[in-house]
# Entry
Amino acid sequence: MRFIYINIAVFVILRLVGVVSFLGTGSSNGLMQWVELPTDLSLLLRRPWTIITYMFSHYGLLHILFNMLWFYWLGRIFLEFFTPRQLGGLYVLGGLGGAALYIAAYNLLPHLSGSQAMLLGASASVMAIVVAVSVYRPDYQINLLFIGGISLKWVAIATVFIDLIGIESDNMGGHIAHLGGMLVGLWFGLAIKRGHDITSWINRCIDAFVSLFKKNSRKKAWEPIEGKASRTKKSEKKNVKTDTTKQSSTSLNEERLDEILGKLKRSGYGALSDEEKEFLFNASRKR
# Structure
């Protein structure tokens, strides 16, 4: 739901800024160009953040509506087998996979070389989740309107087929990005069956990025105001270090707990080592 809220918030902000811009200048695409993912490599180097921002932004109401409905329905099924951290990590990895295939296609395929295009939307991220859970539990039954009960594998196969034949449409770049996200989902599903979680490294990167901002905010809070004496004392410095150590330890414990819970979902309690069982028991007592 946090990811859905972020997508909705970004969409509302972009639309409101677009309306204000349109009333003032007659153009409503001023801010959109700063979040779209370009195929031009020189432009991408000047706007590297777009490789992330594009997967949280949408053009129109139907665009975000269908993406978020897919994300909500399949995300809930995904969370029956995996952790929220894995869902978030796969969302980002799927978006990166879609961006990579999209950029590669427009710069390597002869008939697309030199073409300029922009990508926007969470579709690649959502498709990664759809395919991942379909590969992990292909026979999981869902009910579709007018169709009834159907296995997830057929939903994934139909989705891949639609995107393959859609490459010749006007939204060729979007369908290519979808396929990139699907490849990441396939990778996740096959890897998790072998006991390897491909989202662990991206979650560590996200944790490090968030921790960096937390450290900066704590540092600014202790900086002396210009013209006044610093109120920081040695005992206070020790407390800050102790708190930082505790927070770091808590973060590591949470990550360890997520890994054990993921293993528990995949393989059952009997697959846990004695150390993992003890860690899980101690964590449950504290909570």
